Structures are given as structure tokens and as C-alpha cells.
Amino acid sequence: MKPLKIGILGGGQLGRMLLQSAANYHVETYVLESGNNPPASSLCHHFVEGDIRDFDTVYTFGKKVDVLTIEIENVNVDALFKLEAEGVRVVPKPAVLQTIKDKGLQKQFYVDHGIPTSDFILTENEEDAKLKTEYLPAAHKLRTGGYDGKGVSILKSAADMDKAFKEPSVLEKLVDIDKEIAVMVARDRKGSIAVYPPVEMVFDPKYNLVDMLVSPADISAAQTAEVQRVAKQVIDALGSEGVFAVEMFIDKAGNVLVNETAPRAHNSGHQSIEGNYSSQYDMQMRVLQQLPLGSTGTILPSLMLNLIGEEGHSGPVRYQGLDEALQIKGVYIHLYGKHETKPGRKMGHVTILGENKNDLLAKARSLKSLLKVVSYE
Amino acid sequence: MKPLKIGILGGGQLGRMLLQSAANYHVETYVLESGNNPPASSLCHHFVEGDIRDFDTVYTFGKKVDVLTIEIENVNVDALFKLEAEGVRVVPKPAVLQTIKDKGLQKQFYVDHGIPTSDFILTENEEDAKLKTEYLPAAHKLRTGGYDGKGVSILKSAADMDKAFKEPSVLEKLVDIDKEIAVMVARDRKGSIAVYPPVEMVFDPKYNLVDMLVSPADISAAQTAEVQRVAKQVIDALGSEGVFAVEMFIDKAGNVLVNETAPRAHNSGHQSIEGNYSSQYDMQMRVLQQLPLGSTGTILPSLMLNLIGEEGHSGPVRYQGLDEALQIKGVYIHLYGKHETKPGRKMGHVTILGENKNDLLAKARSLKSLLKVVSYE
What we know:
2 copies of one chain form a homodimer. Helix content of chain A is about 25%, strand content about 30%. By secondary structure, chain A is an alpha+beta fold. In chain A, the strands form 4 sheets. In chain A, strands 10, 11, 12, 13, 14, 15, 16, 18 and 20 form a 9-stranded antiparallel beta sheet that branches. In chain A, a hairpin with a 5-residue loop joins strand 10 and strand 11. In chain A, helix 4 packs across helix 5. The longest helix of chain A is centred in the middle third of the chain and has 18 residues, at about 220-240. The termini of chain A are far apart. The interface of A and B includes residues 24, 299 and 332 of A.
């Protein structure tokens, strides 16, 4: 049969890694992204330059393919609704994208479906936020357009209210966090669900970026079962095929609260390339092709470290310490093909395979001191 | 720094899998191959259509890149000598390619370096072969141009002499084979060598193709040490950086004899993608970039099964049984992006990860009966 034509909206690193997996299958790949050299552009059969937020561009692109997927949420959902209505398979469903893209709708979705989440209120402007001091300390999050830590303000007290957003936002009571956990989930067309082992996140407070994660998470068997149950509950409620990341907090009292869900492969699943039988990208390829879901089993414990542009370095990138880093057994480098670094930019990641969490953390600490993303000009 | 420009001569499946690994690094990739849609063409930055056997084509292509490598031996070596003389890094060295491409020179090389190999004699034509009945039973192999089992005739007795080659060939005494073993070896510029665990090959007698292999080989620790020692001896003697496959026989008396060496990633190393810490392709990327060699350690025992076009099927390909195959835990599909199947054509491979050889063989037998490469027209 003819290779399945798969269209990917977005040409960043998630698309790039999806295409590395796509090359294992009998498919023809299309990527839509602006700019002439994004990370995914050199690994697809057909690169189309265009704006993923533009209705006509997305619609025209979608008409070329058998199935359309995303590697970023910030796409034109109206075009996806029209394509879906005209019989193009869209994974995940446009309705799910619409709910998730708006953090206000997303929070309300959790409430409507009995999914545990932190208390929140919607704000229309910064004056509105200022009236809600009973929610402090809180996270103020733009309802739309935030990514990678941008669009989030932490409001500890009334004195921080100048950092409140003017635009429609969600004001969430801060959770007294014990652990931050993410669970990747895949769902196929028939409703079968595969749940990955939970991963434990360690944030870099400076950039508010996920900096490091360990898989499987260092939590009890009961907590593992509970976060997997909640993650499955979210994906069952969303009712769409696809690959999803459910980010959760476990608070100091042991409660599990859903923070947010991403309807796509995610930073929290990178380590699955080496650490799990079927990676999040392989899983996405299986879903797109309507093949059986893969095994989420752990091959070896793994740790993922983001490679982030150093402070004070902007320009053509150089990876300092790569030589030393690659001498460590079980270290896998993934560079995203970005030519220019800047402070805080995600330029790549490293996966480490090891025997246990302590072994992984020891290797990660060496790596963090060795390996730097700098510019050479 | 600017991404290293890597040129690959040949655009088949080995190039395709090398490019999947290349996408983990900060490199710019060029592929030279004829035809407008070979397996590697959609995964590189620059695809150049042209004949890898043509002097001017290879020379012009080589001048564009920082380092040149191969995924097939059948390239214009004279152009590589000229490029090397003009300062282009060529991996492996052209001199090694020249020796290995000619099975006569290759056999003589083993003799000259005290490397154990089966007795042989060179023949100029079929009359010449007929005079050497004392070598029977023998394998008659074309000195140049053979691949994937083509260019090899088994001459059991004088009655088979009509199958002898007219062209210059090697007549090798048949070895009383107990096991066929391959050892992948990587060597960097400084002469450091990394040796993979030996793999054990099972041939499909019908197509004279490697059909299945198991890693690590089911041989004693002493035999493992011996085949690894011999493989290292071959690569030390060749004295070139690169990735190599040393194919060996262990005869019924327990002697290790080198059959032949490939100066590149090889069918015998496919399972390293999932089964070993650094795959043969990752290793090649490390060598090309002058990064440290990776770990050859086994993550889990693995089995590799070639997916070969079924007899009686020619035309657009269909992979029958993929759905059932992908339900088996630890099964990884690698399809090579070839649109047309024909009997005996290598269309892909499957790697299986498992606990031990028996587990792997049981899964392989199910897979072989499930999964068929057929045409749909």
C-alpha cells in the first residue's frame, strides 16, 4: 500500500525526534513550520514553510495528508476543525486542543470531570487579580500563549501584584509541593490506553524550565498507582487518540493534583527514547498508523537533563565538554540542530541510563558541570 | 562552531540508519546516490543525485564536505585517494577500501598479517578454477562487485564446475563450519578500539543472506575472547579509523577463521541500535566527529531478523502481519523506505530484545510466521 502521509504541525525538536522514529516505518512525512531551517526540516520528505497559526496555511497543508498531528499546541485549531469535518484524521482531536490551549478551559475541564486539581479562579485583567488576595500565594498563568515557563508569574503576596497579567489568566493557589510528577499516556482510536511509569521532575528555578527528570519516579508503589490512575482518568475524559503528558503535583499531605496536560510528545518523555521499550515518539507513530500501542515498560532507569543555553551566551552554538561527557557509559546526546544559542534556550538534552537513582544523579551532576551550551563568538 | 559537514557515499538503508543517529549531533549531512528516492534521501540536509562509482561525481561531492564516509564499498576509490591527498578526511581510508573491495587482495592481506583465514587460491577464469579440484568443496567468489550473496558460487565437486566464474575470483576451501560469528569493531583516529560482543549468524540458504542473528553469540567465554582478539587484530592491521564488521567462522575443530571484513556499518550490527549502549551508527557518528568511542556493552540480549521480500511478490510493498508483530513486547520494526519489493530484497529488519537466547528464538519464530513482505498488486 502507499505510505501513509503524515503531516506534522510545528518543526521544532519534538518534530525532529518524531521524524527519527518515523524513519522506522512505511510513511511519507510532511512538516509545516515558518523559517527555512527549523530542527525538523531536514528529516522529512516534504518541508512546507508557513505559519502554523494561520487558518489558510494549516488548512491547505492538512489537505495534502492522510493524518495530521502536532508537536506544539499553538496551531490554528479552527482549520483543524474544518479538516476534521472534511474527513482528515487529526491526532489529537481539535476539541481537545481547544480545551487544553486555554488554561482556563483546561482547569474547568478537570473540575467538570472530577479530576483533582488546585483551587483557581479566572481573571480578566490585573485589577481583577488584585481583588483575589485570598488566593495568594498563587501562580498567575496566561490562559493562552504561554510556553516553557513564559506566561507564568508567581504572586507570593499583595506586594507582587505588579507582576499580575493584564490579559485573561488563571489564578491558581500555590500547592505545597512534595514532588512534581509527569505521566506520559498514549491512547489509540479504539480507546486502548498505555500508561508510562511516572517520572519525577526537578526544575531549574532560574528559567522555570524542567531541567532534569528521573524515570521511574522515586515514589511508593501506591503513589505510582495513584498518579497513573489520575493520568488515565484525564486521558479517558479527553477521549482522543494521541500521546499526552499529564503533569501532576503530589502535595505535602500526599494528595495528587493535576497541574496541566500537554496533548503531544513532551519534554517529560524524552528519556523514553532509551529508557522504555516503546518511546513516546514510537508510540505517536503507532497511534498515527493505527498500529497496536507499544510497551511502556522500563528497560533501565533513566535520567534526562535539558541542555540549555548558558547565561551571557548568544550566537552560534558550541557544546563545551562534549568530549568528556561522551566518555561516560550510558550517556546519550540529543542536539536539536539549532544553530544559535541564547540564555535559557533549549538546545538539546542528554539521557543517562543507569542502575538506580543515585547512580543517575551522580552522573548527572558530573555532566552538569562538564557540559555547557555556549556561543563561540 | 559550524556544524561538521559529513558526506555519505551511498543512500541505502545503512545510510538511512546512520542519518537517524546523525540527527542527535550538531552536523550537516550530505548524501550521494543515484535515483531520486533512495532510502537515505529524505533524512539528510543535502541530497545529491549521482553515481558513487564515477570519479568526477565523487570528487566534486567530496570537495563540499569536511569528512567523507561510506555506507557501501562499491564507490570510486580513485576519487577518494585524490580527496585524501587534498586534505579531505575519508573514513575509512581509501587504501583500506581498495584492499577490502577486492576479495583477492583481502585474503592476501590476512595471510600477510598472520590473520587466520581459510586456504584459497586466485583464479583468472573458469578454466583456471577447473584445474584446482584439490580445493573442492569450495566457495568461488568474484574478486569485485559481489554483494548480499551475489557473486558467490558453492562448488561441491567437479560436477559443479559449470557454476565457476569467468571473471577473476577467489577459490576458497569450504570450512566445516560450527558457527558463523561477526564482531563489529570501531577504531578512532588515535587508534583506540572498541570491540562489540560477538554476534551469531543464522543464514537463509535460499538467498544466501544473513537472515537472523543473535547477540551476544552463544559461545564460550574463551571463544568470545578469541573472536574479539582476532577481530581487533584485523582492525589493528588495517590501521584506519571507522566502523568495521569482521565476519568469522568457528570450525568444528574450534579454529577461528576470518571470512571477510566490511569497512562500514553492517547488517551484523543492526541489533546494536536497541541492544547495545552505543549502536554501530552512533559509533560511526562519534568516529566521524572525533568524539570518544562509545560503550559496546550489551543492554539486553537481542535478535535481529531481516525482512526480505517474499518469493512470488514484486511491486509496491505491503507489510503483512505488522499489527500482530507489534503486539509482542520488545519488538522493534525498521522499514527501509523502499517502495517496491521483489523476491529476496532486504526491505527492513526487526530487532527483538529479550531475556535470553531461547526467549529471543521463540519470539523470532512467531515473527517469521506472522510477518511477510508482500506486494499488493
